[in-house]
Amino acid sequence: MLTLLGFCVIDFLWLSLALCFLLAFCVHRLSRYLPTGCEHSKLYILFQDLIRYGKTKGPLKRDHWLRVFDIPKRWFWHFYAISVGWNGLLIVLSLHMIIWGQKFPSWLTDILGFLTTGGPVAVRQVPQVSAVLVQVLLWVHSLRRLLECHLVSVFSDGVIHIVQYIFGLGYYILLGLTVLCSDPLIIEEGSPAFPLLSQLRWYHVAGAVLFSWASLLQHRSLVLLARLRTGGSGTVETLAHRVPNGGWFELVSCPHYLAELLIYVSLGIVSGSHALTWWLVVLYVLFNQALAAQLCHEFYTSKFQSYPQHRKAFLPYLL
């Protein structure tokens, strides 16, 4: 039925995730209009506990049993470690197929077949340069974030919910599969080698440029956040939260979340802008990061009375 509508399993998964986070964003924004006392209900607290993490959990009055499911936020690096390993493996398998004509392992073709056509892939298909470039850029992004978690970021005692942790572990695995699923694979019966360089187009360069700029924006924003807790020597002086200033923090509360969205948009451009599946991923990232930024913005405005009124949460001058 989904195939008849132009959707496959992977499309349905990303669309469902995007709609879930859009719904969570809307419910949270509307929760301010709830009657007095509703914010103390167990259902409301459970909902807020599932969408919040880190410092945004602080104002939430949670029961003791909910704290059993807390995982240290500093374990974020686990997500990127898995991504570096998994997506690195997929890059190697793709290059082996392109250069030496080795087919994907049967377990991988079965998974891709289920996610795209509902069955196994019958003909050998060779990834295009767009998919390989997206794989490489995604791997570079994951490696950078892994290094930043260890060398730049200064984590406090903030926590995430175990459901968020499990979701994060599976997220980059699904993302790597999505890159292959969204690729209009070249069907070849003859020679496996395909002239990748001849496929290079202007949008590959444009996407790579945007990716580089957005990655730099995210890195600089994370450095500014880390400097709020470190002294001139780089040693940690405090774990307290302070008002970030400088760079794009003058426009939005969470420029690193905005940069994350732009990174995924850049990958969509590199993919050729024709893949519905990847733009559903971008839609998910938009709603996911918008929710996280809104919660962070509310934390700043409630904690610091002198917080700049002109700053938006996520999108300059808009949201």
Account of the protein in words:
56% of the residues lie in helices and 3% in strands. A two-stranded antiparallel sheet has the order 1-3. Residues 1-5 and 186-193 have low confidence and may be disordered. Helix 1 packs parallel to helix 9, helix 3 (77-100) packs antiparallel against helix 5 (129-151) and helix 5 (129-151) packs parallel to helix 7. By secondary structure, the chain is mostly helical. It has helices at 9-30, 42-51, 77-100, 106-116, 129-151, 162-181, 202-227, 255-270, 276-303; strands spanning 70-72, 125-126, 159-161, 186-187. The chain has nine helices and four strands; from the N terminus they run H-H-E-H-H-E-H-E-H-E-H-H-H. It is globular, with a radius of gyration of 21 Å. The protein starts with 8 loop residues before the first helix and ends in a 16-residue tail after the last helix.
Fold topology:
Blueprint: H1 9-30, H2 42-51, E1 70-72, H3 77-100, H4 106-116, E2 125-126, H5 129-151, E3 159-161, H6 162-181, E4 186-187, H7 202-227, H8 255-270, H9 276-303
Antiparallel strand pairs: 1-3, 2-4
Helix pairs in contact: 1-9, 3-5, 3-6, 5-7, 7-8, 8-9
Keywords:
two-stranded antiparallel ribbon, disordered N terminus, 4 strands, mainly alpha, 319 residues, single chain, 56% helix
Structural class: mainly alpha
Number of strands: 4
Along the chain, the helix and strand elements come as HHEHHEHEHEHHH
Q: How far do the termini sit from each other?
A: 37 Å
Individual helix count: 9
Strand portion: under 5%
Q: Could you name the ranges where pLDDT drops below 50 across 5 or more consecutive residues?
A: 1-5, 186-193
Biggest sheet record: 2 strands, antiparallel
Percent of residues in helices: 55-70%
Q: In one word, what is the shape?
A: globular
Global Rg: 21 Å
- The residue-averaged pLDDT reads 85
Strand order across the biggest sheet?
A: 1-3
